[in-house]
Each structure stands twice: as C-alpha cells, then as structure tokens.
Design brief:
Helix content is 35%, strand content 18%. With 395 residues, the protein is of the alpha/beta class.
Amino acid sequence: MSGDIAVLGAGMHPWGKWGRPFTEYGVAAAREALADAGLDWREIGSVVGADTVRGGYPGYVAGATFAQALGWQGARVTSVYAACASGAQAIATARAQILAGLTDVALVVGADAAPKGFFAPAGGERPDDPDWLRFRVLGATNPAYFGLYARRRMALYGDTAEDFAAVKVKNSASGAANPHARYRKAVDACEVAASPVVADPLRLLDICATSDGGAALVLSSMEFARRRTADPVRIRAVSTVTPTYPRTVLDLPDLATDSAVAVPPPGAEPRAAIAAAAYEEAGAGPGDLDLAEVYDLSTALELQWYEDLGLCPPGEGAALLRSGATAPGGRVPVNPSGGLASFGEAVPAQAVAQVCEVVWQLQGRAGDRQVPGARLGITANQGLFGHGSSVVVVR
C-alpha cells in the first residue's frame, strides 16, 4: 500500500503582530487553501487543528474551534499539540486518517497569536512541569538554550559569530521576496553585528521573533486527487520520532543529559534521527533533495540542521554555508521561504507553513524565490520534550 497522499491546496495568513484572535488567522488560511484546492468547505471530511496554548481554552481544541468558525458541517475533528512539531504531527494525523480510509479529504490548520517578546511559561505554579521549572528555577529562556547550542558549535567545530550572521543575511534576502513573511527587509552582516546581544554569542538578529500567523493544507487520498489532477504534489513521508537513550546533547526543556558511562551513545542524535526516519520512509536520501525548510530558531541551529539532514558531515555546516550551496541558486537551497528569521514563531502554524512553501516550490508558484526544477523537498523541526517531525514532499 502506498503511503502517498496528495496536497490539493495550500493557504497562509501573513505573519506579523496583528493583535487579533488566532482563529481569524487559521480561518483565513483555511479558506485560501480550500480555494486553492477548488473545494467547498462542506466537502471536507476531517479537520485536524494544531493547538496553541496561548490562545485561551479554544486553543486546546483547535480542530473543533476552526470547524466551528468555518461553519459546523459534521466533519470529524482532531486537535494535536506537540509544541513546535504540532503542525507536522497534525499533518501526520490527517495522513493516517486518509490512509486508513476514514476520510477522502482533510483540512489541516495551524494558527497562533503569540505573546510579545520571547516566550515565557504560562501562568500558575506547576512544579511537575519541566518546562515551567527551566524558566522559573533555572531562568533558562529559549534564547539561553540557543546561546548554549551556539557556544557548543564554536567549541566543537570552530564556528564564529560571522558564520551565524551569514545565515541571517541569507534568510533575510529570501524573506524579502516572500509576501507572507513578517520581515521583508534584507540585512547585511554589519547590521547583525550591531544588533543587541541577547544570549552570547547570539544577537537579536540571530534569534527568531514571536509572531501571529496561520497556515493550512487540504490533503486527500491519491484516488480522490486523480479525479481532479493528473500530477498532484504528494506527501510521501512524515516522521515523528523521539530521542534514543542515552541522550547526550542538551535539549529543551531538560537542561541535563543522560550518562553514557555504562551505555554507549546512540548511533544518531535526535535531530539526525528525525531526517533519517523521513528518508527511510520516502525511499530517498540527501542527494535527492532540491530544497529544505528547517527551523532556524537561531542562526546556529540552522547550521546544525545542515549536518543533521546529511547535506554535509558533522562540523562542516559553516563551510557548506560559505560555499553557497544552501543559498538561492545553490545545490540545495535551505529556507527559501526566509525561514523563521523572516517569519518569527507562530508555533502551531510553523510546520504547516514549511510544507506550504515546499508545495509552492514544487508547483513552480514561488515567484522570485523559486528553486528551478524542484521535485523533492524536506521539512524538519523539533518540539519540546525531544520529539521532532519531518515531512518529505515530492512531485
């Protein structure tokens, strides 16, 4: 049995700080995706919503919230929360329903109205929540973690602040050509270096902002799709993996590692395992990629993804960047959308938006940021508590 499903439509609400309820962004993206698919809302058999925990109670039941806002019509609903991996795991849920024959066509929606400034823990006293503990006991904000990871790369591989800045320069140039991006201004290395230090060695322009935004996809069985188009874009793989014991690299929310004194380290670190699982399921490899959308929560983390996707050996991410291979026109452009550097985090929407970008690239609809002849792309992200997701899209 083929694991392929078709992408019939993709839609997005532009990222920004709009000050409106997250439902509005999700509904706008959903309507755009439905129009792109040429389908009426009443033809949708399942709605899968990626949850936000910052939008009040409706955020925890996003599937039903979006279904209600679009107009009750009897569809099956599901809500998924997996932090930054929420959108990809919502796609995985819709895919499973389609392949199981529970529905022919599904709508996946993610949207958020993020708080101002860097993320902080939700209110209340929750001493059994490690994410709350790392903020309240350790003072370990997300930028603190990003700074630690950047320092690790500097110590292990000799990466420099200039290398990190070059990631921002590359992504801002792509974001300037993306009408959905929040930041549409190219910056140079001097501007990155002049921005305030947030978590040494990372500066403000090395770290993604928090944003409002929404993204949606209309997915279907191949049989349903082929009644409408001869060559649909397909999702071929969705990996959702967790680390293998012992975990030897710092990860959020736990700023501690397992001992490897008596147990050898795993064969692959968590992020590399995410991509490896997706490649295996898709029957593809790094050499087949035409583009990649990865989570540049910080500039240093994008360099890490180069290595975890197998685009280069460990420690050679900065050299790959300097070669131009990951830039527009390079061997494998990474984040042609502009990445989170240009969008900021709208957590439940991010992984859905990544797939939207790859779909548009494979359809030749990406405008000035188009990767010529793109036929296969991958997305990659990681959520709290070690789980991560990757989606392989083909044409």
